Amino acid sequence: MKYAYWNGTAWTIQIVDSTGDVGSYTSLALDSNDNPHISYYDLTNHNLKYAKWNGETWAIETVAIGGGAYNSLALDSNDNPRISYSSYNLKYAEATSSGWNISTVDITYTLWTSLALYSADNPHISYVTPYPSDLKYAWIG
């Protein structure tokens, strides 16, 4: 998986992660210092991964094992990552000082997710369930 940005005169391309077949279902957010954060799916291991640029290198971690497709990333008011994703059902991951707090939002089979944080950093998620084909909306808070 690569990250590209315009440096003012040309495109700069960085390799973020090259371990296995990674980079599907990417979602990008910039923090308050314009550093990129990326959530993405590791197809080789079927995991949700998260990468963040710290100004010198990419810090990469596995967020969830056995799911992570159709993910959507948002940063809260303190630049902490929050991710909605499909693990057959709708999941929500929130970074904490002790790791990732993961909860199930909807137990139905879920595809595309889109996450936005509103007042008090409360998550709002739109998503699709294919059987029956419905657009759904969930919020936490």
Sequence-ordered SSE layout with sheet pairings:
Layout: E1 2-6, E2 11-15, E3 22-30, E4 36-42, E5 47-53, E6 58-65, E7 69-75, E8 81-87, E9 89-96, E10 99-106, E11 113-117, E12 123-130, E13 133-139
Antiparallel strand pairs: 1-2, 3-4, 4-5, 5-6, 7-8, 8-9, 9-10, 11-12, 12-13
List key phrases describing it:
4-stranded antiparallel beta sheet; globular; 141 residues; single chain
Give a written overview of the molecule:
There is one protein chain. The chain is mainly beta and 141 residues long. 0% of the residues lie in helices and 65% in strands. The protein has no helices and 13 strands. The protein has strands spanning 2-6, 11-15, 22-30, 36-42, 47-53, 58-65, 69-75, 81-87, 89-96, 99-106, 113-117, 123-130, 133-139. The protein has a four-stranded antiparallel beta sheet, with no helix packed on it. Strand 4 (36-42) and strand 5 form a beta hairpin. The mean pLDDT is 96.
